[in-house]
Structure formats: structure tokens, C-alpha cells
Design goal:
The chain is an all-alpha fold. 68% of the residues lie in helices and 0% in strands.
């Protein structure tokens, strides 16, 4: 991923995670997206995916979105919510050890 793309994704994610605190609708959308991301990138025990797996997913997702012509314009579009979701999941960290 290019440095510019990395900065853009980081900025989208940080802003979106902060926005979640005051937006129940965004928080609910992130919750739904998190289930889909976990299914796509399940950890070895079926728990929360690890940081490396989430970063790989985020890079691939963002690059694909840009190749399709997506550009952040609406904070409520599907791509924005998916990027925010992965950034939120990265902040949650890996599953706690049993």
C-alpha cells in the first residue's frame, strides 16, 4: 500500500472510531461489519483476528476500493464503514488468552 493510501485509511479510521461514540447508527453498522470481517478473517481459534490478518485485510480492501473508483465523500457509505470497522477491531486487540 502506498504511504498516501495508508495515511488516508488511518485518518478515515481514526475519525470514524471517534464518531462512533456519538453516532449509534454508525456504531450499529460497525458491529454488523465486524461480524462479516471476523467471518472473512477468523483467527486460528475462530476468535478475533490478529493484527497482521486485519492489516492485510485492510490493505487489500482499501486498494480494491480505490481501484473501483471509490473516494471518501460520505461518512456513511459502505467502504467508509468497513474501513472504520477494521480500525476499530485493530484497537480492540487480539482475543484474550484463556
Amino acid at each position: 500500500m502506498s504511504e498516501e493510501l495508508g495515511l488516508l485509511v488511518r485518518d478515515i479510521g481514526d475519525a470514524g472510531v471517534e464518531e462512533m461514540a456519538g453516532s449509534p447508527a454508525l456504531a450499529a453498522a460497525v458491529d454488523q461489519h465486524a461480524a462479516a470481517v471476523r467471518d472473512a478473517v477468523a483467527g486460528p481459534d475462530g476468535g478475533r483476528p490478529g493484527t497482521d490478518a486485519l492489516m492485510d485485510y485492510l490493505h487489500s480492501f482499501a486498494e480494491d476500493a480505490f481501484r473501483r473508483g471509490w473516494w471518501p465523500g460520505s461518512t456513511h457509505d459502505w467502504e467508509f464503514v468497513r474501513i472504520v470497522t477494521v480500525c476499530w477491531m485493530l484497537r480492540q486487540g487480539p482475543s484474550p488468552s484463556s
